[in-house]
SAM-dependent methyltransferase
Amino acid sequence: MERHLISHHAHADHPIAAPVSEDNLERLLARARPPARARILDLGCGEAPWLVRALSLYPDATADGVDLSDTGFAAAVEEAERRGVSDRLRLHHGAAASFAAEEPYDLVLCVGATHAFGGLAPTLDAVRGHLRPSSGLALVGDGFWERPPTPEQLARLGAEPGEYADLPGTVERVESAGYATVYGHTSTLAEWDEYEWSWTGTLTRWALDHPGPDGEAALAAAREHRDLWLGGYRGVLGFVTLLLRQT
């Protein structure tokens, strides 16, 4: 079973594909306060929950979402129609790193999708290329080490010690890349647990409802993910979403 389909089924009950609650998602978007008639871009949008909420908050804004997999686009359109914002949402099937637009954006998001660019530093470079000069804002969400991982934990994660910094180090990396941090949200353990229990549980339920090769593959993926979370990165890997402005 293809990985993007596993991810799609796993996120059915938690379309925010990151350990961020709906309340905190809206709080971050409200803090952004883009200008009138803002142009908004989400690189790695999935089912576009951030964009749909942003369009609901800012009724004169327009938005573009880009994702390599278009599996979640139908759900994005359905939710956008339910909220009455579908006429201001455009979805693009393709690699986020290859997306090009003729005009800059007032707000660029990349939350939980920095892997599409190869990590935080190249993500920040890519985001800058889409931002309106001087006034553009970015919402970028990525992992950080809550505490130093052990060699065994690193091996289980397939990670290097320097792949993430701690929280102060993450902010330093962002600001060294030419951004000022104007707000942030550090995901709580409760947000992480809600996200992971939903991811693994929703996928398990789907697998049990679909016996056969696909169900078996999904069930194996759910168990592998749960074991990696509970026995590996729970309480070790954190997640922070930063509201940034270019300096």
Remarks:
- The chain has a mean pLDDT of 96.
- The domain at 20-188+236-246 is CATH 3.40.50.150 (Rossmann fold).
- The longest strand covers residues 237-246.
- The chain has one domain: 20-188+236-246.
